[in-house]
Every structure is written in C-alpha cells, then in structure tokens.
C-alpha cells in the first residue's frame, strides 16, 4: 500500500463483513480515516477499525439497520467521529430468494428500503454536505451483475440493484458540475459470509455456478477492493457514471 487515500475521510456502510469489510480495510491500509456501519456484528466492526494504525488516523463505527436509519443522522455521526467526508461507499444489501409468485409485500419493501432508498438518501445527504463546503467527493455504489443478468428467485433484489445502477448514472450527471463523482461496482458471483450457506454447505450448487465463469473461480471480497481504491482516489478524477463489472468474465458470455 502506498497511501493513495491519505488525508481522505470515508464512510463505508455495511462493512463488518464481506465486500464492505474488504473495501474498508483497504481504505484504512491506504491511509484514509474510515467510519463504518454494521447491522449487528460489533466484533467484526471492532476488528476493522482496529487496523487504523497510521499516526493521526481515525476510525469509528456505529450499529445501524439500513432499513430504518436516517441518512442525516448517520452522516452526523460519521462527521463527529472522523470529520467532513470525501468518500461514500453505499454497500448494504438485503437479498431474498423467494420465488416471484410467492414474494410478500414485506420482503419486497425491505429489499427496496435497504438496497435503494437508503443509498438514495445517503447520496443526497452526502452531496449536499459536499456542496455546502464547496468541495467535491466520490460516491461508490455497490450494485451487482444481477442488475442486468436475470437469475431465478431474485426478482426484488435484481430490480433494486438495476435501479441503484441507474441512480448512479443519473446522480453522476446531476452532480458532476459540483465536482462530485458517482460510480458503480458490480460484483459477480462472490463468496461472502452472507452466502456461506451456498458455497460452504452446498458446494455442488456453487461448483455448478462457477462453470459459467471464464476465469474458473468465484470472486472473493478483496477482488472488489482495488476498484474501490481507484474510484475513491484522485487517480479517477475524470471518471464518473462508470460501472465497473468484476465477475471473472461471466458477463462476456
């Protein structure tokens, strides 16, 4: 690591495990001050922020449920802990694998609350804060290849991720005059603690899914961290409205 984010302050939501954790840990290693959120996993959150070891580096976390949290309140907590933010990573996700004809209103609404409403208003609040300070910023939305590649039993999740991907492009257009960049990372099949019941408990299903990936393996959370560093850093200062697909070549098929 070479300190590409030194002096920057980032809020990474849903970062006690999985892709969010890998991004937060890499941000910290690159010198950023980082504030993270976790839904229930205080142990994981403590492990992440304990990595902040650079002189003067700050890190903190809060427990929150993206389905019910106020974006304004969360930004205030992050600001109080590490200062005005330069980077926002919208990462929390809710997945239901209920067949479409059996999907309940509650499942549908919770999926959209977490996957779309929360990042929508987090993006809005973050952008307003940047504009008030007359300072640019970088927003990174974690979407999915499921936004454009249909999979059975994931209709609500896929609809929410497709909307999030378009939200990124729309916000990139409107916020560009303020120096605020909005980009998307769309992971493919990735082994995380959230889907361990598939890759650990049903390896035959996981092996079958991997057959369609040209690089012959599923992703791991750290595969997404390099893209996040690029999008968060000044190295991508002329990059907005982009969607970085990281799926081992699956979308080529």
UniProtKB/TrEMBL annotation:
Family in the record: Belongs to the short-chain dehydrogenases/reductases (SDR) family.
Lineage top rank: taxon: Bacteria
CDD domains reported in the protein's UniProt record: SDR_c
PANTHER family: OXIDOREDUCTASE, SHORT-CHAIN DEHYDROGENASE/REDUCTASE FAMILY (AFU_ORTHOLOGUE AFUA_5G02870), SHORT-CHAIN DEHYDROGENASE_REDUCTASE FAMILY PROTEIN
Record protein name field: Uncharacterized protein
Molecular functions per Gene Ontology: oxidoreductase activity
Lineage: Bacteria, Pseudomonadati, Pseudomonadota, Gammaproteobacteria, Pseudomonadales
UniProt entry tagged with the keyword Nucleus: no
Species this protein is from: Pseudomonas frederiksbergensis
């Amino acid at each position: 690591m070479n300190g590409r984010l030194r002096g920057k302050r980032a809020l990474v939501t849903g970062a006690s495990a999985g892709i969010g954790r890998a991004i937060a840990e890499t941000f910290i290693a690159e010198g950023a001050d980082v504030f993270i959120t976790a839904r229930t996993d205080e142990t994981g959150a403590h492990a992440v922020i304990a990595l902040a070891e650079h002189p003067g580096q700050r890190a903190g976390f809060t427990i929150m449920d993206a389905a019910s949290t106020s974006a304004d309140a969360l930004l205030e907590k992050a600001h109080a802990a590490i200062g005005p933010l330069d980077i926002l990573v919208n990462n929390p996700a809710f997945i239901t694998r209920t067949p479409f004809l059996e999907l309940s209103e509650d499942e549908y609404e919770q999926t959209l609350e977490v996957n779309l409403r929360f990042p929508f208003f987090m993006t809005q609040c973050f952008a307003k804060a940047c504009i008030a300070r007359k300072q640019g910023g970088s927003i990174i939305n974690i979407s999915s290849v499921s936004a454009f590649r249909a999979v059975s039993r994931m209709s609500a999740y896929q609809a929410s991720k497709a909307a999030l991907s378009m939200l990124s492009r729309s916000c990139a257009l409107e916020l560009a005059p303020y120096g605020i960049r909005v980009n998307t990372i769309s992971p493919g099949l990735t082994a995380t603690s959230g889907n361990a019941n598939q890759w650990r408990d049903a390896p035959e299903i996981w092996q079958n899914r991997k057959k369609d990936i040209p690089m012959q393996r599923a992703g791991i959370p750290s595969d997404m961290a390099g893209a996040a560093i690029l999008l968060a850093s000044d190295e991508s200062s002329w990059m907005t409205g982009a969607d970085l697909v990281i799926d081992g070549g699956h979308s080529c098929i």
